[in-house]
Fold this protein.
Amino acid sequence: MNNQVKNKIVAGETALGIELGSTRIKAVLVTDDFQTVASGDFNWENELVNNIWTYPIEKIWKGIQTSYQSMAQSVTSQYGVQLTKIGSIGISAMMHGYMPFDKKGNLLVPFRTWRNNITEQAADDLTKLFDFNIPQRWSIAHLYQAILNQEDHVKDVDFITTLAGYVHWKLSGEKVLGIGDASGVFPINDAEKTYDQDMIDKFNQQPSVRQYIWSLKDVLPAIKLAGESAGSLTAEGAQLLDSSGKLESGAVMAPPEGDAGTGMVSTNAVRKRTGNISAGTSAFSMVVLDQQVDKVHRDIDMVTTPSGDPVAMVHTNNCSSDINAWVELFNQFAKEIGIDLKPDELYGALFNSSTRAEANAGGLLSYAYLSGENITKMPEGRPMVVRTPNSRFNLPNFMKTHLYSAFAPLKIGNDILSKEEHIKADVFIAQGGLFKTPKVGQQVLADALDTPITVMSNAGEGGPWGMAILALFAKDNADNLSLADFLDKKVFSNPESTTVEPNPEGVKGCNEFIEAYKKGLVVESQAVKSIEL
């Protein structure tokens, strides 16, 4: 088997997927039979600079190069060969945000990530103008808010893109986006699979926009669909990716995608009525639609699959960060008493304790808001635990509270979709670090959404692997299959997975928790007003 993999690596019968997530950049190399053969990663965190959540450009490239080198070293140590040739490459990253460049390719302002809730006026105005929900984190909201703020850099804008689009551009020279990532930049016309021209015209006609010499369509990235080529790795790009200089140019570049798109691919959830959930620093659920949504909902994003099919998306800014902070506190306590636990042991013990909790978490409440939360209209975050003198304050209830809290905004958004629009997935396929402890987070999520939850064996590593699959699809689809058929017939012909059903007692308990959670939002709101950062 090792010799077979080695031969594929030498021949370049491989694909590389790189995903720039909120807390980790990961590079995954797969062979043309979809098997992961090596990976490398780099941990990073966003920084709050002048009240803007950002990542420095230098750290973007340090992270990419570090994760690539770690992956390449793994290839050498496992298979005894140098990695010099890759068949195809795909870049994915956190969706949305704002990266504007001038004619010389200079970044005009520090990267503004999806996590910023600083575009409320623009998002509201554009939603009314388009009769289409524009969330605060969308790129067009950031651009329009900069216009409304009369920021000096706007006059020099020549090109705007997302993080994935930026990295792809530097590696290939192509200013393009996959349609899934593009659907978080500006609304898509589902029939034509391009930006909605009527909305572009409405935007350009705004008095505040007409003062600029650029036209919106000229500054947006071009759109590509899954399976199409989006250029090739240039010599400069190869050097940028592999600073050792060993990597050859010429790899086919897949259209760069957002982490939502790679999540759909890695969970095989691109067909109608399929749904997927990604739970990490942020969380989002996606349902591929088989019917139109009747009205505009500010908590429901309308985006697309990597093939351009319409998707209803519920996106929350907060999920696992507060859990991670509490687990680290328990880790520090363990070390104080001379016990050194591996992360899986620590998370496993704490998560498993929640299975002994009361269904409603004993009257405890937690607001896991490290940043503002769009679903509950919080402009900033103040992580907070609240209890009454009558709450049953013990470890199982405490951990159950934090699991409920991690999924609470996601549940509130999905309740709108299911109760008001009668849109619901037959099953959600979930991925993310919260599901590494078997069945615990999976059961909580099933109870929260009152829907079966399936977790595949790649639940903790899905995004960059999904991007590598899209890279393989872009390089070789000789059978001219649709993306859904390609995934069904070739990639997921025999998937390893587990499914849990909602527990009626858990559903009832979670609903009780959520009702108390909603009532307590006034406390969180007051904390934002009263406690300065």
User: Anything to note?
Assistant: The first strand starts at residue 14 and ends at 20. The mean pLDDT is 93. Residues 432 and 461 are 7 Å apart (CA to CA).
